[in-house]
């Protein structure tokens, strides 16, 4: 059982959000800032980060490639966060298997998995201070029995993110580091580049309009819902926190 502190007051809990420039990552960064946390927003594109920082005084922008092996160590050393949330990833090439090349098929392995690997590794090596939280935002595709047949290696990469999150959780426990490591798997949503690509591709494959496809999905996960759910997750007692969750429009759901 973890002895980490319950982070009900986030005002002194520096939070790094990797992939904060758009979509769910932007919603998560905004929610933590509104909850009082000092937020370090990391992304490769300067303009949306600057806009985000201008809108919220407690957000510090960091323009960096989170997949670079040196970036995680540098930012963890400089900011000494107690919360790290990994949302960043590449937009998959939306085509069926036979229309992929190995380069397009493997893009999420070389980006999403690489980011999770570097940041989880550094969180353990640094290590983050006892009571810290690391949340890896994977994808609902990781637990979909059919994967994601129009997005190349995306589902497999997201499943690997889920697996290595579990590996990091076990290593934290074995070493007595008291770092709570959680995987979160959002359902498909059009509120982000990856989701928009998916909606467009799967609607076309099914002979539907995007509106028809979205209607079939039902209530949609928004950046605001994602942000609120992760703030609640980080504030929760780690002793009651599940290792992984599905994230839907209704918030965090326990996996069956």
From TrEMBL:
- Please list the residue ranges annotated as the Ketoreductase domain: 13-191
> Is Metal-binding one of the keywords?
no
Specify the domain of life of the species encoding this protein. Bacteria
The cross-references to InterPro entries, in alphabetical order and at most eight, read:
KR_dom, NAD(P)-bd_dom_sf, SDR_fam
**What protein family is recorded?**
Belongs to the short-chain dehydrogenases/reductases (SDR) family.
Q: Which PANTHER family match?
A: BENZIL REDUCTASE, CHAIN DEHYDROGENASE, PUTATIVE (AFU_ORTHOLOGUE AFUA_4G08710)-RELATED
- What is the official name of this protein in its record? NAD(P)-dependent dehydrogenase (Short-subunit alcohol dehydrogenase family)
């Amino acid at each position: 059982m973890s002895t980490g502190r319950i982070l009900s007051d986030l005002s002194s809990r520096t939070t790094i959000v990797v992939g904060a420039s758009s979509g769910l990552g932007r919603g998560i960064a905004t929610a933590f800032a509104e909850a009082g946390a000092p937020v370090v927003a990391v992304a490769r594109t300067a303009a949306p980060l600057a806009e985000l920082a201008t809108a919220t005084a407690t957000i510090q922008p960091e323009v960096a490639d989170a997949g670079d092996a040196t970036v995680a160590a540098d930012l963890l050393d400089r900011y000494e966060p107690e919360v790290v949330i990994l949302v960043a990833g590449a937009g998959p090439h939306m085509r069926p298997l036979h229309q992929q090349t190995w380069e397009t098929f493997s893009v999420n392995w070389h980006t999403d998995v690489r980011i999770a690997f570097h940041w989880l590794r550094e969180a353990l090596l640094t290590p983050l201070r006892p009571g810290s939280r690391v949340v890896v935002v994977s994808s609902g595709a990781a637990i979909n029995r059919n994967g994601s047949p129009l997005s190349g290696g995306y589902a497999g990469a997201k499943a690997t993110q889920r697996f290595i999150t579990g590996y990091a959780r076990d290593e934290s426990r074995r070493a007595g580091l008291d770092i709570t490591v959680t995987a979160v798997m959002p359902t498909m949503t059009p509120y982000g580049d990856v989701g928009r690509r998916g909606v467009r591709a799967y609607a076309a494959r099914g002979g539907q309009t995007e509106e028809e496809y979205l209607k079939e999905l039902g209530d949609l996960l928004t950046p605001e819902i994602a942000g609120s759910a992760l703030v609640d997750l980080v504030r929760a007692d780690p002793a009651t926190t599940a290792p992984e969750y599905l994230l839907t429009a209704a918030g965090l759901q326990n996996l069956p």
